[in-house]
Amino acid sequence: MVTSWRDGNLAWTGVPSRNPHTAEHIMGMPAAVTSWTVEMLDALEDDGQRYEIIDGELFVTPVPSDVHQFIVLEFATRLHAHLRLAGIARTVVSPADVRKPNRTRNRVQPDVFVIRLFDGKRPAYPYALSDLMLAIEVESPSNPELDYRVKRALYLKHGVPEYWVVNPTARIVSRFRTVEDPGEVFNERITWQPDGIPQPLEIDLPALFTDALD
Q: ω before 62 within 30° of 0 (cis)?
């Protein structure tokens, strides 16, 4: 089943968080820092959390749960199996860096994403947003606004043609294709067929969530 939905200019699932998990909200982080760089991130100790910056603003998400990782694995496995014979794209699982043209103040790590190959070769790493054919985020329960608002705008404004947000609790996937797109919600089957892929990938969502969670 497909459901179109809208909340003003924001497509949404769940309750919006008012805590964006920026640096100022994390114990021990230097609250005086207002503009972060990739070099500053690299200097932080590895504590297992995900640190991403968008135009100098730091976002921190907790260590992924086992549910999060099971779902990431299922989506990545299906994408990999579908793409490996076509030879024009690769599936990537984070941690892996993706950046805007201003690479010193931008670094995000989509949970799962697909990069297009050029003459059979991977693009230069860290990847550019324009290298991505699909980005998938598993919703952060502590801060869904990061996935549904901030990253949605980032990806779709900078060359990513399709963006999915997975809600493990509701067992649904929200799909966005443009910044203005109010979004579609899928709970039974979602289909993906970008340019250059001869056959569409059809994902049976109940089966995927069963494999991941039950």
A: no
Over residues 81-138, the pLDDT tens digits come to 999 877 889 999 999 999 988 889 999 999 999 999 988 899 999 999 999 999 999 9
Element (H, E) at 163: strand 163-167
Integer Cα distance of 144 and 186 in angstroms: 18
What's the pLDDT band for 32 if we cut at 50, 70, 90? Answer: low
176 φ/ψ angles, rounded to the nearest 5 degrees: -130, 140
Residue type, 134: L
Tokens of 100: 């805007």
How many angstroms separate the first and last alpha carbons of the chain? 22
pTM of the shown model: 0.84
Q: What is the DSSP-derived secondary structure letter of residue 165?
A: E
The Cα–Cα gap between 62 and 99 comes to 21
R_g over Cα of the chain = 17
- 166 sits in which H/E element: strand 163-167
User: φ, ψ for residue 152 (rounded to 5)?
Assistant: -55, -50
The least confident of 11-15, 177-181, 202-206 is: 11-15
